Amino acid sequence: MGNASSLLTQYDIEEVQEHCNHTFSQQEILSLYQRFCQLDRNGCGFVSGEEFLSVPEFAVTPLSQRLLRMIDGLNFKEFVAFLSAFSAHASLQQKVEFIFRVYDSDGNGKVSFNDMLEVLQDLTGPFISEVQREQVLTRVLEEAGYSKDSSLVQSDFLKILGSSDLKMEVEIPVD
Amino acid sequence: MSNLKSSSSELDFDRPNLEDYLPTGSIQEPHGKLRLRDLLDISPTLTEAAGAIIDDSFTRCFKSNPPEPWNWNIYLFPLWCLGVVVRYGVLFPIRVIVLTIGWIIFLSCYIPVHLLLKGHDKFRKKLERCLVELICSFFVASWTGVVKYHGPRPSIRPKQVFVANHTSMIDFIVLEQMTAFAVIMQKHPGWVGLLQSTILEGVGCIWFNRSEAKDREIVAKKLRQHVEGADNNPLLIFPEGTCVNNHYTVMFKKGAFELGCTVCPVAIKYNKIFVDAFWNSKKQSFTTHLLQLMTSWAVVCDVWYLEPQNIRPGETPIEFAERVRDIISVRAGLKKVPWDGYLKYSRPSPKHRERKQQSFAESVLRRLEEK
């Protein structure tokens, strides 16, 4: 039986590895490919937002809508690149960069007070009032030496998050 | 008044509580003063999302796992080719003939019985029951079903309901050839639907449309009436509400467990040595599924009629349903997952997200107070 995985040649896999800075092994990429084909139900070569949402465990995470903006319509190479931040081989810098991108919704390289407020809103929903959210955020920003008007760049994020150990790893099932 | 009340609770009929099953506290509760880092660090949520993209228990339930190709090597290849010729060239035509004969016998008896014995309801019902069992035996024969039944054969008795795990429409046929169950099932299109509305309705089967809330209400009402009737056929429910690949069980709908009657669990396990009996209704029609079964060597399966269970004092219908699911899963060797099978057709309710948001919000507020 011709399995779907045999459709990828060594060249293809190496190319994908190149694209994700060798954060995944060849076996892992094969597994991801099988998963990709499974998610891409209509087999058109990319996974639509609708298809991502059909995974209930993904749909229930508070950040799913925000993430969808990043992952809607990914082809396989982009799919692997997106997930590379969650590899055990990814550097702290890569992981922080990923988090930064989630915050920086307009992609201008700066995270403003509003960007942070929006993410906080996604995370807390209706359980903290608008006013309270702003107060909380202003307070912790000031305590960390920033102000409400300062916008954070990637190096700030690295400084803030880099000291802690980020647990951002997902194991890929390899059979 | 009490009628109105019960009908509104029937709307809940198909909504089990996911919260009761999901593990809590996947995101640990840190302590100490709230710092900017704690607010900006969204890695736990991101990891959860990425984990679900890479692998999730829900999709695994509906993935058809083709049988391991045990006969696939160069020495056995000629034999395998011969097998293909035999299966398609000899077995398949014979099976088609057997099935056709079955249908001819069935229809030529069923139609006169149904039309002529209008006055003798009891007698007519009995004959119809036998005939439905007969045609199901023909179906099982048409895929050389090797079915082993374990445990006592169900008898007709009021106030009892049978529940089984669900892999394919053929579950129903396999069980029906032994006992004419009245079954609750999704209304299907095409020739299956035609059979449903003509013949199977005679055995007391109840059909509904998954997506219609109104239908569910009617079904719940019919259910109650049916279990009360003394000489109605025993009721069979597939509480998962959808076909699962026979490796997992998804959550049971609590409807069958709220009727206040004895629940008899039935476990069905297919052996995949020749063919995968899982019907992936999104990928293939029932006809293709049947053809696939009819061109394989045999369908091998085990059916266990298990110890009847009653709701314990103080037990909620959901807990009862879980207990029965445990019994079935253990017997058939299936893994349990905390998902509602209907998520195949709809999105999870925002409730689940809100719960996560609430726990995060509470932890933020609590830590804000701490110094």
TrEMBL record, chain A:
SMART domains: EFh. It comes from the Eukaryota. GO terms for molecular function: calcium ion binding. InterPro entries: EF-hand-dom_pair (IPR011992), EF_Hand_1_Ca_BS (IPR018247), EF_hand_dom (IPR002048). It holds the Pfam family EF-hand_7. Keywords: Calcium. Residues 27-62, 91-126 form the EF-hand domain. This is EF-hand domain-containing protein. It comes from Solanum lycopersicum (Tomato). The lineage of its organism: Eukaryota, Viridiplantae, Streptophyta, Embryophyta, Tracheophyta.
From TrEMBL, chain B:
One of its GO terms (biological process) is phospholipid biosynthetic process. The keyword Lipid biosynthesis applies. Pfam families: Acyltransferase. Residues 160-271 form the Phospholipid/glycerol acyltransferase domain. Keywords: Acyltransferase, Lipid biosynthesis, Lipid metabolism, Membrane, Phospholipid biosynthesis, Phospholipid metabolism, Transferase, Transmembrane, Transmembrane helix. GO terms for cellular component: membrane. Residues 346-371 are annotated as: Disordered. One of its GO terms (molecular function) is O-acyltransferase activity. SUPFAM superfamilies: Glycerol-3-phosphate (1)-acyltransferase. The keyword Nucleotide-binding does not apply. It is found in: Membrane. Pathway: Lipid metabolism. InterPro entries: LPCAT1-like, Plipid/glycerol_acylTrfase. The chain crosses the membrane at residues 72-90, 96-117, 129-149. Belongs to the 1-acyl-sn-glycerol-3-phosphate acyltransferase family. This is Phospholipid/glycerol acyltransferase domain-containing protein. It comes from Solanum lycopersicum (Tomato).
